[in-house]
């Protein structure tokens, strides 16, 4: 499922871009949902729910909060969302690199629909390699979960609680040990910060004192024995992105 947000304060262009995207997705038989927003402020009111989108198309030149500032706020919650800037000007390249934008699209391009198609082709190709899913037998039923959507896993009384970002943060449970699930997820960016917590490094925003702060604002304790190792892994990770 592709969830796409289009944010532009020009009503005509908002509609045009939405139509081109629908045409592309229908042609490729991709299931999708598209939501449109008339300003950066309106989009940012979603808070953490912004991460439910696969791709966000942002007009750079918007009033109040422009596309660059909006993208910076998005990156505070997620490094996984694909950000595409749409602009009448091409003088924001450096700022785009800082928020890891995948494309700049010029509104004045005569072949704008072709540019949209090429952009979507690139994103679809990246997703085929970047998205890793795993099937879990939860108490709520068998579910296939994107690993990048798992915030953290908590061990409680022989049960594991998976805190997962979907349309909102949802909790699924299964019987098992954190040691076993840590081994199963090895190599996928999860770090053990405590006897009770296995955390997705992608969702650690900062380390404050003896705790990690996650992208949804949750604070989790780091055990003293693991602190140095967790800090080292986090510093290495933010140096790579």
Structurally, how many domains make up the residues?
Answer: 2
CATH class of the largest domain: Alpha Beta
The separation of the N and C termini measures 26 Å
Query: What is the H-and-E element order?
Result: EHEHEHEHEHEEEEEHEEEEEH
Q: From the coordinates shown, what is the CATH architecture of the largest domain?
A: 3-Layer(aba) Sandwich
Gross geometry: globular
Instruction: Please tally the β strands and state the result.
Output: 15
Question: What spatial order of strands do you see in the largest sheet?
Answer: 2-1-3-4-5
- Rounded Rg: 19 Å
Largest pleated sheet: 5 strands, parallel
In terms of per-residue confidence, which ranges show pLDDT below 50 for 5 or more consecutive residues? none
Strand content: 25-35%
Calculate the mean pLDDT score and round it: 88
Domain HTH LytTR-type: 145-236
Protein name: Stage 0 sporulation protein A homolog
Organism: Clostridium brassicae
Domain Response regulatory: 3-122
């Amino acid at each position: 499922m592709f969830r796409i947000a289009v944010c532009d304060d020009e009503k005509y262009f908002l509609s045009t871009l939405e139509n081109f995207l629908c045409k592309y997705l229908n042609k490729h038989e991709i299931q999708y949902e598209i939501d449109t927003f008339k300003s950066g402020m309106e989009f940012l009111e979603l808070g953490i729910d912004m991460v439910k989108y696969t791709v966000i198309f942002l007009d750079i030149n918007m009033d109040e909060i422009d596309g660059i500032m909006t993208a910076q706020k998005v990156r505070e919650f997620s490094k996984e969302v694909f950000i595409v800037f749409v602009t009448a000007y091409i003088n924001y390249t450096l700022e785009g690199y800082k928020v890891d934008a995948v494309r700049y699209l010029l509104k004045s391009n005569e072949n704008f629909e072709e540019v949209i198609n090429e952009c979507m082709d690139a994103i679809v190709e990246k997703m085929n390699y970047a998205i890793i899913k795993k099937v879990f037998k939860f108490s709520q039923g068998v579910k296939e979960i994107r690993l990048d959507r798992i915030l953290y896993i908590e061990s409680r009384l022989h049960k594991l609680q998976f805190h997962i970002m979907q349309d909102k943060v949802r909790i699924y449970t299964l019987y098992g040990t954190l040691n076993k699930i840590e081994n199963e997820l090895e190599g996928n960016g999860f770090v053990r910060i405590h006897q009770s917590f296995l955390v997705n490094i992608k969702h650690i925003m900062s380390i404050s004192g003896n705790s990690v702060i996650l992208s949804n604002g949750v604070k989790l304790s780091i055990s003293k024995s693991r602190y140095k190792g967790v800090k080292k892994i986090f510093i290495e990770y933010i140096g790579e992105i």
